[in-house]
Amino acid sequence: MRVTETWYLTLSALLFTVGFVGLLVRRNPLVMFMSLELMLNAVNISFVAFANKLDDIAGQTAVFFVLVVAAAEVVVGLSIVVAVMRRRPSITADDLRSLKG
Amino acid sequence: MIPVALLAAESAAPAPFALLPSLIAVPVLTAVFIALLPANRGDFAKAAALVGSTITGAISLFVLAVFEKGDPGFQLVSQHSWVSSLGLSWILGVDGISLFLVVLTGILFPIAIVTTEAHHEPKPYYLWLMLLMAGSMGAFLALDLLLFFLFFEVVLVPMYFLIGGWGHGERVKAAMKFFLYTMAASALMLVGIVSLAVLVGRETGVPTFDVRVLAENSDVLSHTAALLIFLSFATAFAVKVPLFPLHTWLPDAHTEAPTAGSVILAGVMLKLGTYGFIRFGLYLLPEIAHELAWIFLTLGVVGIVYGAAVATMQKDLKRLVAYSSIAHLGFIVLGVFAMNAQGLTGAVLQMVNHGVSTGALFILVGWVYERRHTREIALLGGLQGVAPIMAAVFTVVMLSSIGLPGLNGFVGEFLILLGAFSSARWWAVVGVSGVILAALYLLWAYQRVFHGPVSGDNEKMSDLKLSEMFGIAPLIALIIAMGVYPKPILDRIEPSVDALVAHIGQRVDGFSEQEPEPVAPAGVDELIATAEASGHGGEAEAQEAEEGAE
Amino acid sequence: MIALVAQDTQTVALPGPPVVWSLLWPFLILAVGGVLLVTVTSVVPVLRGRSFPAAFTCLTALASGLSLIPVWQRVDRLDLVGGTIGSGTEGPRSLVSGAYAVDGFTVFVTGVICVSVFLTALLLDGYLRREGLDGPEWYVLMLMSASGGVLLASANDLIVSFLGLEILSIAAYVMAALHLRRAESQEAGFKYFVLGALASAFFLYGIALVYGATGSTTLQGIFAAGPNAAGLDPRTDSSLILAGMALLLVGFAFKVSAVPFHFWAPDVYQGAPSPVVAFMASGVKVAGFAGLARIFLYAFQPYWADWRPAIAALAVLSTIVGGLLALAQRNVKRMLAYSSINHAGFMLLAIHAAASPDDGGQRGAEALLFYLLAYTVMVTGTFGVATIVGGRGDGRHDLDDYRGLSRSNPLLAGVMAILLFSQAGVPFTSGFFAKFRVIGALASDGSYALGGAAMLAAVISAVLYLRIVVSMFLIDNGEAHEADHEAVDAVAGGRAAPEAEGDTLVEASPEASVLTSVRAPAPTALLAVCLAAAVTLVLGLLPDLGGGILSDAASALLLAG
């Protein structure tokens, strides 16, 4: 069986969905955070698959930018999570509700 | 269609100086001056407001003096481009229809300022009053549809603060209701204005909001478009008037507002609605106005009867006057949508009359409240004994409001009914009942408040002070003068009204056939003769009433 | 693509793309200014004092704004008489290998972002002093975020858009969470981060699908692959590009807080430090709208009939829901969050009109630009007042905390009233002409129903502005008034006593510090809000904006490429 781009794209879409669902249902800030990373990297698979299909280098270049951005997001996101958790160690996202109206 | 606009501008008499803009500028500058006063000098604020409004009033009288009475067109036009990218221009002008509303505004403001006091924080109070004056003047003078809308909307802000800051009882709620009701109604008007300008501009090639250009070219609109645009305008004006089902903001706003606020609200701001119907309904979109006239005639008549009936039942004197306004404005709408010369002339005249007499009524009710701290009719009684002068003044004003021959109210109502009879007979028949009802509720209220034995706290009530008498004297003089000799006023209103009726006749098929005698100058002369003849009798009656009161 | 000039001494130097530096200055000044500020203040600790970073940031914003003038002159001529920048192979107005485009539109948006930075820096100065917070980080992050915003607005390639969006957002996440003593601030930062990152992921997936459908990430390439080009590009997969557009739109809708992607905004606006909210609501949002307009009105222009209904739906929902949900609120910052959702709806309507193929297009683009400017000034000023009233601890944002503001500080109350009435769209303020232009554009386009719905929604949202005005002006003096006219003086005298105490016992109680904060606000903050109110009034009287700037910038947006 030949593995075509469609397979990669489907995998990418599945991983993206897994990440999205994870973000919605999980309440641990760190797991939510991992889900976000999963979504970004799922997109990377798409980029590479499309680049391969189109025989174009731009898609693969994009992946590098995404990786850099994702790293920056990790830095910021983790520090915010740490700042929140240091205040209340066993926190879940449901506990973050002092802001509501 | 630029040439049309230019032509109109050239044909108008050149203003000696920026006469009309100064009617807006003087109050604005006064407001700026008041804003710069030190906070603790409230007395200065009142003096400044009085001077500013009096100067404006004097300018408005000067406008009246230089107004060419035979000229039906717009006079003293001041035209400048303002926001050219949007097609918005600064166009001001007066004709017979707006002239007396401008003068009314110019007269009522100084009187409202002199006859009432700000109970606290005078500085912002007079600042808002001055801005209100500028806005009202602007709305009556604007010949650019968008400019009109700007003024029409902006007057809400000072009025909102006046009601909310210096009113009584549930004033904040009343102010909110007033602001939101009016704003909601005019929200769609903005869409209508823009659509009108865009659609007409597409045909003529030049986007403009100049009402003269729009009125000449509005026949390019499709029927649906014109209908929707008219409805968007009509909603805004109907709330402002207010017409029957949309009137609920008015009693609250009037009752809770401070006296000066009520005077201006009734005297000037309600006229923005009826004036809007004439200038931006009948003039801009005559076909639709004619087609839908029956709706507005009906609502007007319902307003007359409803306002009168509800007024009769009021326990609060100020609320009674507020509901009587609904009835009176119903009369004016009846005259406007009679769409003939008599009806329209009567409507314009009645706008001024209502401003004068209802303004005076609110001032008097305000004085009663100041002295007695209540407006409950049941708690008042026998005031004639302790305050005979007030009772006399009240009598004259009340009789004018009822429409007694010889006083100003009569001429307007008579002309309106005359006009309505020729084009909308059955509505007129119902409308007449309003005159009778007005007599009923006002006389009954007068009886309960001023007649009978002096009860309880009323004994200590003081009569009018000299300053108060001077304050209200101009209004009494106007009530009598306009009732006895309305000809100079009618002479200035009629040419413009005739031109408007001709404009409608030109645009609406079968318009003139519907009316056997559309414009009959002889009829009007006769009418004036009648009015004058009966005027003398009426004056005598009024004097008798005064004497009786004393 | 930003091509990095990688030089290898051993091999042949990689040829870098030609760069027209003079056109990059506005962007570079913001970015380099941020880097410089963090470097200088780290090396010379004396400069970590609060005045230097604020002054430096204001000057940077000013310099970036001034550097726009020569750029404007150059690109305006380009827009008028044609011609190209550089080699012109990637589009006449693009530079750096087609990664970055400069035209009237980007110049205008950059100017608006500079205004936002300038005003926010003035607000931050007083805020940091009051809160006893230290550090130039706030300013550095803001400059970084602003440079990201400029990048997003100027991007000529979706990957660059993504970079700009991330630079813009990541710095903003940190700013939202930067008030370390307030748990609300961190909570807001966390929520902002999670939902912002989610939006970025959607955005990125959208880029991937569009790339897959058209084979290009440059706006030019996507446009050329569209059905309006010489023939349908055989590689264009229409379902793929529709999905890509939808995902991009969702990403942007999150960023500009359009309903139904708005739910983060009230929480974040309530919790984040008030001056930061001023920047998030102005600068960040403006950049988001600029990116949205640029990408959809240019790259996706061939598909306008497909995406326009979606924009219209988002717009109408935002105007109505923004107005309605505000009714239930009592926290002023939350109310203003909903008001900004309502404004977002209006700006989306402007984009809707700008997509019109007839003369509504130009008017819609003009409306969008004017709205962005007017909105930025209004909203920065409004949150500026909220910053001042918030008091030490930044916690006093209930409607009741605004009671009697007209007495304790009439100037502040007056400024707030002007800004609020402008947001409500009262004539003779910039807010009126902003709404008017949108309605005018919709009418030119024939979308009367949308215009009517938007105006009615504007009335609903007017309630929230009036409620704040009522608190400031009407409630306090009213209770005194209602009791008895004579008693007014006595009550006022009674109230004056604790206020006088507040001056001496500044640190004693939160009450006292609030009164000080309101009665003697930081001069820079007061300057910022007064400037905002003044500009609001000036734009309300002279909405032409000095002749053709708006129309030139708007036509650049529509003809971009």
Rg of chain A, Å, rounded = 17 Å
Strand order of the largest sheet of chain C: 1-2
Total strand segments of chain C: 2
Q: Specify which chain pair forms the largest interface.
A: A-C, 44 and 45 residues
The biggest sheet of chain A, with number of strands, parallel, antiparallel or mixed sense and barrel status, is: none
Low-confidence stretches of chain C: 1-9, 477-510
Order of helices and strands of chain C: HHEEHHHHHHHHHHHHHHHHHHH
Q: Specify the biggest β-sheet of chain C.
A: 2 strands, antiparallel
Separate helix tally of chain C? 21
Helix/strand/pairing class of chain A, anyone? mainly alpha
The parts of chain A where pLDDT drops under 50 for at least 5 residues are: none
Distance between the termini of chain C: 16 Å
Radius of gyration of chain C: 24 Å
Give the ordered list of helices and strands of chain A: HHH
Description:
By secondary structure, chain A is mostly helical. Helices cover 76% and strands 0% of the residues of chain A. In chain A, helix 1 runs antiparallel to helix 2 (29-54) and helix 2 (29-54) packs antiparallel against helix 3. The longest helix of chain A has 30 residues, at 58-87. Chain A is elongated and about 50 Å long. With 550 residues, chain B is an all-alpha fold. Chain B contains 24 helices and two strands. Chain B has helices at residues 2-11, 19-36, 42-66, 96-115, 122-141, 145-154, 156-166, 171-204, 211-217, 223-240, 249-256, 259-282, 286-291, 293-313, 317-338, 341-372, 383-386, 388-402, 408-423, 425-450, 466-484, 487-507, 511-514, 521-549, and strands at 75-83, 88-94. A two-stranded antiparallel sheet of chain B has the order 1-2. The radius of gyration of chain B is 22 Å and the shape is globular. By secondary structure, chain C is mainly alpha-helical. Chain C has one domain (21-559). Chain C is 74% helix and 1% strand. In chain C, a hairpin with a 4-residue loop joins strand 1 and strand 2 (100-101). The two termini of chain C are 16 Å apart. In chain C, 67% of the residues are buried. Residues 1-9 and 477-510 of chain C have low confidence and may be disordered. Classes of the chains: A mainly alpha (101), B mainly alpha (550), C mainly alpha (561). Chains in contact: A-C, B-C. Chain A binds chain C through residues 9, 12, 16, 19-20, 23, 29, 32-33, 36, 39-40, 42-43, 46-47, 49-50, 53-54, 56, 58-59, 61-62, 65-66, 69, 72-73, 76-77, 79-81, 83-84, 87, 93, 96, 98-101, and chain C through 1, 159, 162-163, 166, 170, 173-174, 177, 180, 183-184, 186-191, 193-194, 197-198, 200-201, 204-205, 207-209, 211-212, 215-217, 235, 266-268, 270-271, 328-331, 334.
